[in-house]
Amino acid sequence: MAKTYRVGIIGCGGMGRSHANAWPTTGRAEVVTAADMSPDAAAKLADEFSLPTHYSDVHEMFEKETLDIVSITTWQSVRAELTLIAADAGVSGILGEKPMSASYGEAQDMMDACDKNGTKLVIGHQRRFMPQNCEARRLIQEGAIGEPQAMLRRDGYGLLNRGTHEIDEMRYILGDPEPLWLIGQVSRRTDKWERRVRAEDACMGEICFEGGIRGIYESDLPDPGLRGDAVYGSDGQLRRGADGTIELLNTKAADWQTVTPRQSEPNQFQEMVAWLDGEIEEHRNAGRHAATTMAILMAIYESLRIKDVVEFPLTTRPNPLDLMVEGGMLPVFVEGRYDIRAPFPEQQ
Prior knowledge:
This protein is α/β, with parallel strands linked by helices. It is built from ten helices and 18 strands.
């Protein structure tokens, strides 16, 4: 009989509730406990899902519970610490939410702890499971637009908020090329935060990937905007179409073609079970991909800090935005800190 994996949820807000709903749908995982620094939040989730136990101390949870998997659905400012605790406790798998962490150094520590303990780490960039993105990746790998040359993405609300999805999605569609260098610019005139981590007002970055592919990312820049879903190649281009399709233009046809994804995809929870079972070589959201995404995000900040091109691998462990703000390089011109996700106590 196939193993049923015992799952614990760490972080009992909306995303914790989402994970608690998702795990049982795999047919191979049972959520058995939950933890949150707020006893009320842990108790509420435990009551909603009829869990026999709940905790406000994760150390106590790991002492008393036998768990195979934990979902870490907290804010990114504490995700690294909790990942290290879970890996050291000996769980087989960790599914963390995005962004992976609040700095590249923390991402490296998470990878090291999981490698040391044999823990499979996954970070929830769920766009890697969208059939539209998977089909775009397959078409590019099959040469439908020749050699990929450039990809454009445009979004808003912060690098560690929406930007982590956009950059990770860019890499996935292009076949996960490694970054070679990056140049970026950042604006921060207000004291803006996102889930208690400093955020920028606007930014952009140009990334050079292996093979010379350029990735262009814009966040919160003024209109007019570019179409932020296009991939350009030596023999055509592709972009998102209606109803989950791909629009493809190349020399094989006189006009745009509409391509319907050829297959459905599992979700990240099902693929975690398959990875733990040994049925697949690696989860498409394996931690190493999220760590590369974190390096790119932090390199956009780092490019402004060093006033130069950043070459990979990135060696700066702290968040460069913090270094610039705390060092006086990015003074606040509009007083009053604010968090776009959850108000600070003085704002409530």
